[in-house]
Fold these 4 entries.
Entry 1:
Amino acid sequence: MNKVILVTGANSGIGLALCERLLSVDTEGLQLCLACRNMRRAQAARSALLTSHPTAQVALLQLDTSSISSVMAAAQEVKLRYNRLDYLYLNAGIMPNPHFDVKAFFKGLFSSRVVSMFATGEGILTQRDRVTPDGLQEVFATNLFGHFLLIRELEPVLCHAGRTSQLIWTSSSNAHRSAFNLEDMQHQKGTQPYSSSKYASDLLSLALNTHHNKQGLYSSVICPGFVMTNLTFGILPSFPAFLWTLLMPVFWLIRTITNTFTLTPYNGAEALFWLFKQKPESLDPQAKYHSLTSGLGSNYTQPRQMDIDLETSEDLYEKLLQLESEVRKKLKEQEKESQRVRSSAAGPVSS
């Protein structure tokens, strides 16, 4: 029986590289669904995959994880198309409007913390978040809450007796406990919403295992390492392309002394691909699985313990459930209001 795989944020970068790697090992036995916000880019990604793998089953799904209505509509569509989902890769993410501290960058470039600075962005990056039409912080909604709602909506196709399903989150080495505050889980008051959202995804993964392992649903977290993607280039939007090219020898040099500089989306997808081949029952729920590349270019995956605890993960889970309840209540009120407006516009029916 074909394995059904859904990948969010699959039209470029690590998500697209994962899809290519999956099809390279099993074209006939997979049903692959690319869940993307921009359907034009999604179609281009699908065409590229089918060029390499003409017999592959590759479907598209409109999904914007920052939009509640989009998540709900996408989940409904998935349940209509599939009676089960074997893998759900929670890969979509944003780091909007990053502010780059040039002074801190050049200071760090010639210090002992240069590797950590490049690998995590700590000390040189802050972001300016904004509020979505649903009234949520955009980074929180896109990177965490939209995915949480998607999982909740897809439980009927994820949880089945007698078989297992996997949730696999693309997290980051930028996921720092110091950036996360449970009392401000949307990070309205801080300047590191990306780091906060990634740390929250680490916590949520642990909580999901606590609540759903008995139903055959398992959750894991990966770190792709330092990868050159659109997200990376967006850190310095005015940075000329040739300067990135000039920096590449520096990155290659750094990779000879650290294994976290994966650099390419193909390498960055290593842990995502590795988890596809593992039995979920054998995985450590408190480990983050890192994509690593040696100085000679060999890729491998290594688990590293996350800086998380069960109590905080459970508290976050309860807060997300509460927010979900509020969101659903608001949606019902909006639907009632829409029906009332439609009825009023229709006017009385004459006999």
Entry 2:
Amino acid sequence: MSGGVSVGRVLGIAAAKRARLFCYLLLCSLILIFVAAHSRMSGGGDGGGMLPMCLPQTKVGFLKMHKCASSTVQNILFRYGEAHDLNFVLPSKNNYLGKEVPFNRTQIADVPWSGIGYDIFAVHTVWNFAEVQALLGPAATFISIVRDPVDLFESLYTYARWDQLFKMSLYRFARAVSLNTTRSQDFLTVGAGYSGHNQMLHDFGLPEKDSYSVAKVKQKIADIEQEFDLVMVAEDLDASLVLLSETLCWPLEAMVALPVNVRFPQYKQPLDEQTRALLRDWLWADQMLYQHFKRLFHRRKHEFGEVRMHEAMQRLRKLNHAAREMCGVSETNFDNANADFRPSNNLVKGYEVNHFTDCINMARSELSYIDILRNKQVEKAKNV
């Protein structure tokens, strides 16, 4: 009897995998049909071109950077990985693998799915290249994303409500920390996994004490360039996703996404140039990091080809428009969103969509999606 139950369970899981992949491919097909019909009506072509022959990468390490459009990229990785039955490195609860200390494999030693093997790392962590590579293997592809440090800090300050924590506006904060560079020590440990000061270098794993040394910052930037196959730029997200498609050898259709964890416009603080300059000076180490990888990113865009990039970006925009049409996307807020789609706080947009599986997953919140993937891996581990 137990053998029969086991076989039934295996067949059920196999059927579920086929159903997920079918839904994923169905949505891609519907999007392509929609785009083709629109192109015929408008007299245009799809402009996408063909990707060169390559093998889709199934071992991917993504450093999910704070406030850099990384939740959108994470959602893309989650949907592709789930549709292709890939396994995720996940914490036993919540959405962090280490907040104050670099990632170590011991942090996931006791998870129920520890014996299934891993394909994709895409959750918040303090980066540790050696440990992540040991999990995914030497052939893994490593990616991350950066953003203008001042804009990142403004987003973090507002999102985390630091005006309440520090009892001052961002305008006053910029002037307080500029008076004495060592004042930054007063604002480092603020909880929720944030460093605040040079947040990107913190996420990349540079110890706080080293972020005051130009030599050590330069060395860290060189190490990141050596370790990562692609560092995207949040301000140029469409081009970033085109290059991600090429880097992973995933179809451009796989890059379709909704902007996840994005604030409503009224909660964004415009900054005067003096405030920006003060924050830029205070965040000089992250500024070095950003400028370096922004230059490399523009070089990658140039190598991809200006015309080819323009056509691919146009095609991606058509695909995204088609997905919104197919999914019936409408924006909502924290109070009115369905529990599975509820954003992280009331400053952030949520979505309502129709019943297609991939539409639901595009709109799903990070915590909800991680819970689903975690539960599926628990079930998968039972059959290993």
Entry 3:
Amino acid sequence: MALGPHDQYLSHGTNTSMVKSQKMEAFTIQSKLSASAPEFYPPGFMAVSSKATADEAYVDFEIPPDLTLADYLQDFLSLLTSHPGSFELEIGQFTEMMNTWVNTDEILQEVVEIIYQQATTVPNFTYTAARLCNYLSQNLTINPRNSNFRQLLLQRCETEYSKRNEAVNGDEKARKKFHSFVLFLGELYLNLEIKGVNGAVTRAEILQIGLCELLSALFSKPVDDNLTCAVKLLKLTGSILEDAWNKQGKSDMAEIIQRVENVVLDSDCSRDVKHMLLKLVELRSSNWGRVHTAVTYNEATPENDPNYYMNEPVFYSAEGIPLTPADPDYLEKYQEMIDREELFQGYSDEDGDAYLDDSEDEMDPEMEEAFEKFCAETEKKTK
């Protein structure tokens, strides 16, 4: 009787070489593929000749007739908002599409406006928007080239900048809109690269001057939300601004910190905002938290750790916006964290699975007797 594939493994009397031969024959499949077959390309893919240069390798995009620039751009911005990690993966194709599409100053102006609106209305998009603006300022071109992306972007920011005095004295809605612009300009200052004639990359000095004026405007009306915005901007850009001003021999940061201290002494702002301003002064005195030697959290003190005031936890709102001590939910979240730490303070990594100290969990004689009785009854029922 012939052995089946499974019988080959179960039989001990069969010759080993014969079993191996039968096993190979059972699983050998004749391939119909050929090494000389033409290369496969997915539908719609245009192959590029190996002799093509890098510039010739790009394929022209065909714009669907029913797709508008605003719709395409808004979809891409929404993608970056929800998946910022896809920036590097998607930006190349997006820029090629925009270079095909953007061929007039009017269209370029529309692109700038759509990106600006998204950057100043969606808090989570501010940083990514600044990165996008930097990339497009270097890679987006139009023909004929009467203007460029960076020029139109700075003009748009100038329009909002000119309204600063009205905005800080306006109603809550106007101030909120202005604060979004201020923080976007801060991110833009950190991310927008300007290439000099010798190839050196620098930051836009005009933005540096603008940020100083914006801080002055915010402190001129020391209400809580204006001061909170100023603190956020200084935490974001303070170290970079001070380094730049020091190189230029300016004392702008010292003057700003003096205004902060004056607000703490004289302003009618809330207690939480004053606390936040004091923390900012302490942060600046510690060189903006920049350290050269590591100090463990338990050993850190204001004297031995310049980063001491950066060790405080950061909490976020449901919208993903960082909370400050001036926000109503900050203290509540801080208390929750402290309660949680107290709950697990008996846990030690050296105890293995002992998450809590069980020294107080011993049963008294009455409980121990009841427990033994319960175990005996359970064992009897099992038998």
Entry 4:
Amino acid sequence: MRGGTRRTCPASLARIDPYGFERPEDFDYAAYEEFFSTYLAILTRRAIKWSRLLKGGAGVQKSMTLKRYIRKGVPLEHRARVWMGVSGAQAQMDQNPGYYLHLLQGEKDDSLEEAIRTDMNRTFPDNVRFRKGSDPCLQRTLYNVLLAYGHHNRGVGYCQGMNFLAGYLILVTRSEEESFWLLDALVGRILPDYYSPSMLGLKTDQEVLGELVRTKLPAVAALMDSHGLLWTLVVSRWFICLFVDVLPVETVLRIWDCLFNEGSKIIFRVALTLIKQHQALILEATSVPDICEKFKEITRGSFVTECHTFMRKIFSEPGSLSRASIARLRERCRARLLAQG
């Protein structure tokens, strides 16, 4: 039956999705079609509103209206422009003409180049646009963006995980230079110290999630504690890859819409929503491998595929999550990590 579906399906249900990713063998075409037919109507309505908001070609200015629009989803045709505007990447690019090309033409760093090359074939093997035989092949574009960033931010250089971020940026912007400046916004400003050699920012935020779970979902925290399980074992990929290759593409892009506009707090909202929604399932676990498996399970299925409903949930399910409370938790968790050495 599935083969028959493929022969007659609309573009949204093709074997390759609109971003070039191959759908898995067990992809539920029927459930996706049911979701997408409703979502398409939402996208169409949003696209008309966005076109009105962005008419005239002026720069994207942060506002409460824009925040509300972004939370409801940015149409793909406007996504690069909106991300560039709200993240500050556009301003950086405008203030530094020619800088990206200058970085690519700079002196060679053999160890940096080797580290990036090693990860090329590991980046989205299930995406037809990143395969060596494809035309055009995005591997060269990805290599350039990562190399330029390694030269630009020598304190970070290149860290595994950045290839997935840059790859998504390239798929959305279709521009090397814009992808570079958006990567700079993520790694340099939105997620400081996530990708530095010590990864202190990343480790801190995983600890912060643990503290938030302890407050908001104490039964899950108690389960983790009873097995001596560190949060890094179950959520590190969520944080390092910003849910890339963890959640469905369209859902990740909706998360990133908010991440570029509202900052890293969004990651906690997503993580808490996933855990809260599946708390009963997680609490069934009786061993460390079982808990790890449950945390993989909660990133699959209709809840995460239906991105519009999912995004509404992340702003209601976790409850209040003020910047001040996150800042206090970060301070406490960072001090604890530094004390541990």
